[in-house]
Amino acid sequence: MATFFDALQGDQIEFIRRQHLFFVATAAAGGRINLSPKGMDTFRVIDPNTVAYLDMSGSGNETSAHLQDDGRITFMFCSFDQAPLILRLYGHGDVVRPGTPEWEALAPVFTQVHGQRQIIRARIESVQDSCGYAVPRYNFAGERDTLVKFFEGLTPEQIQAKQAGQVKSIDGLPVVPACAAPGR
Ligand SMILES: Cc1cc2nc3c(=O)[nH]c(=O)nc-3n(C[C@H](O)[C@H](O)[C@H](O)COP(=O)(O)O)c2cc1C
Predict the structure, then answer these.
(1) Ligand 1 centroid distance, CA of 58 (Å)
(2) Contact criterion met (CB below 8 Å) for 143 and 39
(3) What's the pLDDT at 183?
(4) DSSP state, 1?
(5) Could you give the CA distance from residue 76 to residue 37 in angstroms, rounded to a whole number?
(6) Nearest Cα to Cα of residue 79 among 90, 87, 67
(7) Nearest 5 degrees, angle CA 133-CA 27-CA 147?
(8) Closest to 62 in 3D by CA, of 151, 182, 174
């Protein structure tokens, strides 16, 4: 049976802190829905109605594009161990870029990573927990260091150039690059 909450409960926050993987979904009014798996200990609960994750540079910038266009966001955590549980967080998000006062305020809760690009922050309006009986069990084998190694091979200028090139979503929606000057 699914249960809804207006805010994250203490045990749910503890559950989130034990997870190595989360999923983030966003969509614009039209076009393809984005669904991304994320790891690397990048998710933080700021308060029972506010969460954020440190977003890494990638080959696209879908979540940011959709938040700039629409704002809706859904996070999912699911248990892969003995006790089954699926936790969904529903809300509206925005993008916090380096060089902004919000970045200065929020960035310290994260371990800085070479290759990071922005923070995705979300106001959580609804939380749903459900059973997850059909989710298989997995043992956590470890984080990948591939992304860090990938970006260690690049200079900050090369990383910025990569980010500056990401100005459109896969459906052509405009997106302000992570490295854009504050206020853009
Ligand atoms: C170095 C590198 C790392 C990436 N890491 C991820 C990742 O952790 N999760 C993911 O969904 N896509 C990853 N991607 C692929 C795309 O960047 C990503 O699927 C796409 O941009 C989706 O939107 P998002 O960036 O808002 O998640 C990576 C790409 C590159 C080049």
Answers:
(1) 4
(2) yes
(3) 66
(4) -
(5) 9
(6) 87
(7) 75
(8) 174
Alpha-helical runs (H) found in the chain: 10-18, 62-69, 101-106, 146-152, 156-164
pLDDT at 125: 98
DSSP state of 83: S
Amino acid identity of 152?
A: E
Cβ-contact 131, 140 below 8 angstroms: no
Atom of ligand 1 nearest to the CA of 120: 26
Tens digit of each residue's pLDDT (9 = 90 or more) over 64-85? 999 999 999 999 999 999 999 9
Rounded CA-CA distance 96/83 in Å is 35
State the amino acid at position 128 in one-letter form: Q
| Domains (range + CATH), the chain | 3-134+143-177 (2.30.110.10)
Report the pocket of ligand 1 as residue ranges, CB < 6 Å.
Answer: 34, 36-38, 56, 58-63, 147, 150
